[in-house]
Amino acid sequence: MVNVSYKVLFALAIWTMTTEAFPKGAERTKCHLAKYKSLPPRELEAFKKAKDKFEDMMLLSDRKCSTRIFHRNWEIKELSVHDRVILVEKELDFTTNVLENIEDPSLSKLLSRPLEILMQIRGDLRDCTRQTHSHRHSRRLNNWLQNFHESKETETPGCLEASVILNLFRLLNEDLRCAAYMQLCL
Prior knowledge:
globular
Protein backbone atom coordinates (compact mmCIF):
# COMPACT_ATOMS: atom_id res chain seq x y z
CA MET A 1 0.00 0.00 0.00
CA VAL A 2 2.81 2.40 0.91
CA ASN A 3 4.61 1.51 -2.30
CA VAL A 4 1.52 2.52 -4.37
CA SER A 5 1.24 5.84 -2.52
CA TYR A 6 4.84 6.71 -3.32
CA LYS A 7 4.30 5.84 -6.97
CA VAL A 8 1.25 8.10 -7.17
CA LEU A 9 3.08 10.90 -5.37
CA PHE A 10 6.08 10.50 -7.70
CA ALA A 11 3.83 10.53 -10.79
CA LEU A 12 2.10 13.71 -9.60
CA ALA A 13 5.45 15.38 -8.94
CA ILE A 14 6.69 14.52 -12.44
CA TRP A 15 3.41 15.71 -14.00
CA THR A 16 3.61 19.03 -12.12
CA MET A 17 7.16 19.66 -13.29
CA THR A 18 6.43 18.86 -16.94
CA THR A 19 3.19 20.79 -17.37
CA GLU A 20 2.32 24.44 -17.36
CA ALA A 21 1.19 24.21 -13.74
CA PHE A 22 4.11 26.45 -12.86
CA PRO A 23 5.12 28.30 -16.04
CA LYS A 24 8.68 29.54 -16.28
CA GLY A 25 9.51 33.10 -17.21
CA ALA A 26 6.86 35.79 -17.46
CA GLU A 27 3.62 35.13 -15.68
CA ARG A 28 1.01 33.91 -18.13
CA THR A 29 -2.21 35.81 -18.57
CA LYS A 30 -5.46 34.00 -19.07
CA CYS A 31 -7.55 34.15 -22.19
CA HIS A 32 -10.83 35.77 -21.14
CA LEU A 33 -13.16 35.86 -24.12
CA ALA A 34 -16.34 34.48 -22.54
CA LYS A 35 -17.66 38.00 -21.98
CA TYR A 36 -17.86 38.39 -25.78
CA LYS A 37 -20.31 35.55 -26.32
CA SER A 38 -22.97 38.22 -26.55
CA LEU A 39 -22.37 41.96 -26.60
CA PRO A 40 -24.90 44.13 -24.78
CA PRO A 41 -27.61 45.60 -27.06
CA ARG A 42 -26.57 49.12 -26.02
CA GLU A 43 -23.06 48.48 -27.38
CA LEU A 44 -24.36 46.93 -30.60
CA GLU A 45 -26.57 49.99 -31.09
CA ALA A 46 -23.47 52.21 -31.22
CA PHE A 47 -22.14 50.04 -34.07
CA LYS A 48 -25.50 50.13 -35.84
CA LYS A 49 -25.65 53.94 -35.76
CA ALA A 50 -22.20 54.19 -37.34
CA LYS A 51 -23.05 51.56 -39.96
CA ASP A 52 -26.35 53.29 -40.84
CA LYS A 53 -24.58 56.64 -41.18
CA PHE A 54 -21.97 55.08 -43.43
CA GLU A 55 -24.60 53.41 -45.61
CA ASP A 56 -26.37 56.77 -46.01
CA MET A 57 -23.06 58.31 -47.07
CA MET A 58 -22.46 55.47 -49.54
CA LEU A 59 -25.80 56.13 -51.22
CA LEU A 60 -24.73 59.71 -51.88
CA SER A 61 -21.31 58.76 -53.22
CA ASP A 62 -20.29 57.25 -56.51
CA ARG A 63 -18.06 54.70 -54.80
CA LYS A 64 -18.11 51.33 -56.54
CA CYS A 65 -16.59 48.55 -54.50
CA SER A 66 -16.62 44.88 -55.21
CA THR A 67 -14.14 44.02 -52.52
CA ARG A 68 -14.20 40.66 -50.86
CA ILE A 69 -11.49 41.31 -48.31
CA PHE A 70 -13.21 39.35 -45.52
CA HIS A 71 -14.58 36.66 -47.82
CA ARG A 72 -13.99 33.01 -47.09
CA ASN A 73 -15.56 29.81 -48.38
CA TRP A 74 -15.68 28.21 -44.96
CA GLU A 75 -17.06 28.99 -41.53
CA ILE A 76 -14.95 30.02 -38.59
CA LYS A 77 -16.19 27.06 -36.55
CA GLU A 78 -14.24 24.80 -38.94
CA LEU A 79 -10.97 26.19 -37.51
CA SER A 80 -9.24 25.09 -34.34
CA VAL A 81 -9.85 27.22 -31.27
CA HIS A 82 -6.36 28.76 -31.58
CA ASP A 83 -6.87 29.58 -35.26
CA ARG A 84 -10.25 31.18 -34.52
CA VAL A 85 -8.68 33.54 -32.03
CA ILE A 86 -5.88 34.41 -34.45
CA LEU A 87 -8.34 35.03 -37.29
CA VAL A 88 -10.52 37.32 -35.18
CA GLU A 89 -7.48 39.15 -33.83
CA LYS A 90 -6.24 39.84 -37.38
CA GLU A 91 -9.69 40.95 -38.57
CA LEU A 92 -10.13 43.15 -35.52
CA ASP A 93 -6.67 44.66 -35.76
CA PHE A 94 -7.28 45.68 -39.36
CA THR A 95 -10.82 46.89 -38.60
CA THR A 96 -9.60 49.07 -35.75
CA ASN A 97 -6.79 50.56 -37.83
CA VAL A 98 -9.16 51.45 -40.67
CA LEU A 99 -11.81 52.93 -38.37
CA GLU A 100 -9.23 55.03 -36.52
CA ASN A 101 -8.29 56.67 -39.83
CA ILE A 102 -11.73 57.53 -41.20
CA GLU A 103 -11.61 61.18 -42.21
CA ASP A 104 -15.32 62.10 -42.21
CA PRO A 105 -15.84 64.03 -38.93
CA SER A 106 -19.49 63.04 -38.46
CA LEU A 107 -18.67 59.36 -38.91
CA SER A 108 -15.55 59.62 -36.74
CA LYS A 109 -17.67 61.02 -33.92
CA LEU A 110 -20.12 58.10 -34.18
CA LEU A 111 -17.22 55.65 -34.19
CA SER A 112 -15.67 56.83 -30.91
CA ARG A 113 -17.61 54.39 -28.68
CA PRO A 114 -17.35 51.45 -31.11
CA LEU A 115 -13.59 52.05 -31.30
CA GLU A 116 -13.30 51.94 -27.51
CA ILE A 117 -15.12 48.61 -27.51
CA LEU A 118 -13.02 47.23 -30.36
CA MET A 119 -9.78 48.26 -28.66
CA GLN A 120 -10.82 46.49 -25.45
CA ILE A 121 -11.65 43.35 -27.43
CA ARG A 122 -8.39 43.64 -29.37
CA GLY A 123 -6.42 43.82 -26.11
CA ASP A 124 -8.14 40.70 -24.80
CA LEU A 125 -7.50 38.88 -28.08
CA ARG A 126 -3.83 39.85 -28.01
CA ASP A 127 -3.55 38.39 -24.52
CA CYS A 128 -4.94 35.16 -25.95
CA THR A 129 -2.69 35.12 -29.01
CA ARG A 130 0.40 35.76 -26.86
CA GLN A 131 -0.32 32.45 -25.19
CA THR A 132 -0.41 30.65 -28.54
CA HIS A 133 2.60 32.27 -30.22
CA SER A 134 4.16 28.87 -30.90
CA HIS A 135 0.95 27.49 -32.39
CA ARG A 136 1.26 26.46 -36.02
CA HIS A 137 -1.55 27.88 -38.17
CA SER A 138 -3.69 25.57 -40.24
CA ARG A 139 -3.35 25.61 -44.01
CA ARG A 140 -6.85 27.11 -44.27
CA LEU A 141 -5.94 30.01 -41.98
CA ASN A 142 -2.59 30.58 -43.71
CA ASN A 143 -4.30 30.78 -47.09
CA TRP A 144 -6.92 33.18 -45.77
CA LEU A 145 -4.29 35.38 -44.12
CA GLN A 146 -2.33 35.55 -47.37
CA ASN A 147 -5.44 36.52 -49.38
CA PHE A 148 -6.43 38.99 -46.67
CA HIS A 149 -3.02 40.66 -46.84
CA GLU A 150 -3.08 40.83 -50.65
CA SER A 151 -6.60 42.31 -50.66
CA LYS A 152 -5.58 44.99 -48.17
CA GLU A 153 -2.74 46.02 -50.46
CA THR A 154 -4.82 46.26 -53.64
CA GLU A 155 -8.02 47.97 -52.43
CA THR A 156 -8.62 51.70 -52.35
CA PRO A 157 -8.96 53.33 -48.92
CA GLY A 158 -12.64 54.03 -49.55
CA CYS A 159 -13.36 50.41 -50.39
CA LEU A 160 -11.40 49.25 -47.35
CA GLU A 161 -13.60 51.48 -45.19
CA ALA A 162 -16.71 50.04 -46.81
CA SER A 163 -15.51 46.47 -46.32
CA VAL A 164 -14.67 47.06 -42.67
CA ILE A 165 -17.91 48.81 -41.77
CA LEU A 166 -20.10 46.39 -43.67
CA ASN A 167 -18.30 43.46 -42.00
CA LEU A 168 -18.64 44.79 -38.43
CA PHE A 169 -21.67 42.74 -37.47
CA ARG A 170 -20.29 39.51 -38.88
CA LEU A 171 -17.08 40.17 -36.98
CA LEU A 172 -18.92 40.80 -33.71
CA ASN A 173 -21.88 38.43 -33.97
CA GLU A 174 -20.28 35.47 -35.70
CA ASP A 175 -16.48 35.48 -35.62
CA LEU A 176 -15.93 36.98 -32.16
CA ARG A 177 -18.81 34.99 -30.69
CA CYS A 178 -17.40 31.74 -32.07
CA ALA A 179 -13.94 32.54 -30.73
CA ALA A 180 -15.49 33.33 -27.33
CA TYR A 181 -17.35 30.01 -27.21
CA MET A 182 -14.02 28.22 -27.76
CA GLN A 183 -14.66 24.47 -28.17
CA LEU A 184 -18.41 24.94 -27.85
CA CYS A 185 -18.79 26.91 -31.09
CA LEU A 186 -21.02 24.81 -33.30
